[in-house]
Each structure stands twice: as structure tokens, then as C-alpha cells.
Write the C-alpha cells for this entry.
Amino acid sequence: NAGVMQNPRHLVRRRGQEARLRCSPMKGHSHVYWYRQLPEEGLKFMVYLQKENIIDESGMPKERFSAEFPKEGPSILRIQQVVRGDSAAYFCASSLGLAGEETQYFGPGTRLLVL
Amino acid sequence: AQSVAQPEDQVNVAEGNPLTVKCTYSVSGNPYLFWYVQYPNRGLQFLLKYITGDNLVKGSYGFEAEFNKSQTSFHLKKPSALVSDSALYFCAVRDNGGSYIPTFGRGTSLIVHP
């Protein structure tokens, strides 16, 4: 009964490179959420996806960031031309249904370091 | 609009003593409230939630939280703290009549001293 899986756990990129973060939701979950956590800050919502659809991307920067959740395979958070300010922990969560009363289950996170 | 506040950045308590981690919220409708715990270099783990019903909610690892509508609070409590409870605790709220995405607090670092 695997939980939410994220890889890589740690990712180092140089400025200008691309970062790809992967998230496999819990079995049976079709709702995926991405959050960013900066030191001394809480979790900031980025994007909410269902299979093949972006439902809410109100928290995602308009440039360089994109997300997808294809019919097959994991959800991907993609950051193009990374800058030092992108260094953070990125968490994925999944839920069985819409995150109203449904509990979100979190993955272990990907810690991105931009040099 | 929905918001949540954790007024304490850090809470210190001696092992064996009761602990309280505070959370207050603001919503337009009815709140759904959640507590999560985060250990170093780990993801958030669900502790408990309040949706409706009994104001006292019991969760994992002996934690409980009390929903107080008049004070708009949802404080996390445990009768007897353990050193292993030391972690970062997050409160989250969702407005039943608004956004379907929970808003998380900034987190409270709980330190339990032996």
C-alpha cells in the first residue's frame, strides 16, 4: 500500500537548466496537488490537477513553471530556466476525491537546490 | 476568503507535560480543519481533521484537537508530550463555501525537552 511517491528526493541544478519533479499519487487517487515550501514559511499552493486536466493553477508562477498529469504515468512539475529563488522543497499531495473533506496525503518532497 | 494563523513559531514543553499548539482560522462559511506533522526532511503526515460533528477530534499518536466555533480556533493538544513529538506542526483550513484548496499555516515548531 504505497503512499505518495516523489522523485528525485534531491535535485541540484545550475541556473538556466530545467528541473523535472515527478509525483506518483496513492493508488486509486486521481487528484494531485503541488505545493512549495520555503524555509521559515508554510506550504504555498501551486497547482491542482486531475488526470489530463489542470483544475486550478492560481498559485503557480505564470512563467517558467508548468505541470501535467497525463492519463498514464506520474504528475510532472517542470521548471524551466531555473533561478536561485526556485530553491525550495516541492511537495506533492494526492486525494481520493476533491480536497474538501477528503484528506490530502503528502509525498516526501523533492528538495531543489539551484546553484 | 479563508485564512489560518498559527501565532507561535515555537512551543517548548517538558516531556510528560501536556502540550498545546494553537491555531485560529477565518472563513466565510463553515470550516474544514486539518492538522499535519512534518518531521525533518519528510513530507507532511496527516494527524486529524474536523469536518462536522463532535467538537473534540481524536487523531494519530495520541493527539486531539478541539473545534471552538465562537473563538474560531482549532488547537492541537496532547495530554503527555514525548520527545519524539518534536516536529513541525501545520494547521490547515478550507472554507466549505469557498475554495476547495486548503490554506496552510506557517507552522509551529514543537520542541519537547527530556
User: Anything to note?
Assistant: The two ends of chain A are 36 Å apart (CA to CA).
